[in-house]
Amino acid sequence: MHLTAQFCGVLNSEAVGDITLPPIEDRKAGTLSVGPELSGNMDIRIARDFAEVESLRDAWSRWPGHRDSEIDFYLMILRSYPEVLRPHVIALYRNGQPEAILIGRLEQKKLAFRVGYLTLFQPKARCLEFVYDGLRGNASPENTEILVREVMNCLRNGEADLAILEFVRIDSVLYQFSKTLPGFLGRDTSPSQTGHESLKLPSSIDELYKRMSSKRRSEIRRKAKKFVAQATPGTNIVCYRDPEQLDRIFQDVEEIAKKTYLRGLGAGFKDNTLVRARLELCARKGWLRAYILYIGDRPCAYWIGMLCGETFYGEYVGYDPEYRLLSPGMFVMLNVIETFCNGTSGDTVREVDFGFGNAEYKSALCNSSSVEASVFVFAPTLKGIRLNLIRTATRMLDQVARKTIARANWLQKIKKTWRDRLSKRAEDGPPKAEPPGDGKPASAAN
Full-prediction pTM beyond 0.90? Predict the structure, then answer.
């Protein structure tokens, strides 16, 4: 990779803001240090500005992928999130045509190294963040290895202090190369694994109930009947999807969200410019589906998602803590899923993607899962090594704490106590915590 001395100086500085971008960069055969050589008809190009990203639109849009790596959603994140400095899309070309891309962005942000909910360290760093399902096109082992080695080359040349590949399936070639190709000091020795749950839609809601244990099924139905009986003057679920309905969505959902424990974490739904940009794009593209449960005229619970193709991606979910014991979040979800099954929603939905993390409602509803992990790759610099040591130490503390709590069967009690405290903090005033740096919403339902 050949960079001008001036540009190298900018990349190695701590400056944040607009920078002068070089033209799209080509890497010809034979310049990768180790690994598969690029044949004469292949080259690597890195898109570092919006025009260069747009030049990839036709091929990018032809390749299937997750909502998070859709080009317009990607561009919205670039324009909306203040920590983003510029695009960083690594494209592998064959015979002058794009064959595969790894979709990322350069950010200057505070990393959050946590033990449970507690943040211990927040070092500031320049980070190459590669989005969820960011490998599009021909993801052959050969192509994947070339792209991962290019990430390492970018770090070696001082473009960032580390790279993060968001939530990569642990059974994928991308995960294996990201873990094994970096040297020992730059390698992620303990990626944090999490489940990714989804529901392949049955033909009827009765089939979904039949898959549950009799105890869970009777509990859900009992709570639903009790909720309806207590909800005077009656319940109603409204689906909002149009741009002109956004103000109503934000008004009603914020009334609930400000009371939730997620607000105490500084996560989840919030009426701010970032969430508005997200939902405005989805409304314009026809993706938005915002389901709000009302008791009379009072908003009580919500489930906001995006319908892309035939998959509904759950984005934000929450409920008024006053009704916690009656599980209004589950009440909304089951009623919406029923409309997906019987077709009364007017949409064709084959799958509901509940996203990352474990939750009781997911174990009740989901029938498909995968294990994923965000993989860190650290630059071969003193700062990169220091960040790796801090993260490794924090991960070890987190793992020891989780094992100790699990042995004592304290986990659910601690979670409940912590969430109750956060809910109270949310009601008392604005959160002290910063929003998650990955730009993803957090969600929970009872």
Answer: no
Q: Is the dihedral of CA 419, 423, 428, 430 positive or negative?
A: positive
Identify which has the larger pLDDT, 328 or 8: 328
Domain positions in the chain are 5-194+372-407, 202-349
Helices (H), 231-350: 246-257, 261-265, 273-284, 328-342
Q: What per-residue confidence (pLDDT) applies to 18?
A: 32
431's CB contacts (< 8 A; 6+ apart) are 263, 264, 265, 266, 425
Q: Phi and psi of 65, rounded to 5°?
A: 175, 180
Token output for 407: 């042995």
Query: For residue 289, which of 364, 254, 340 has the smallest C-alpha distance?
Result: 340
User: Which of 299, 300, 290, 298 is closest to 323 using CA atoms?
Assistant: 300
- Tokens describing residue 30: 């034979």
> Within 13 Å and on the Cβ side, how many CA atoms surround 117?
17
DSSP characters for 349-368? --EEEEEES--HHHHHH--E
User: Hey, do 5-194+372-407 and 202-349 end up sharing a CATH topology, with the first three levels equal?
Assistant: yes
* DSSP calls for 371-400: EEEEEEEE-SSHHHHHHHHHHHHHHHHHHH
Q: Tell me the per-residue pLDDT of 4-54, one tens digit each, with 9 for 90 and over.
A: 333 333 333 333 233 333 344 444 433 333 446 677 789 999 999 999 999
Q: Could you confirm whether domain 5-194+372-407 is CATH 3.40.630?
A: yes
CATH no. for 202-349: 3.40.630.30
Q: pLDDT of 90-127, one tens digit each?
A: 999 999 999 999 999 999 999 988 887 788 889 999 99
Query: What residues does 114 pair with on adjacent strands?
Result: 119
Closest listed residue to residue 304, CA positions, set 273, 327, 275: 275
Both tokens assigned to 427: 């009601």
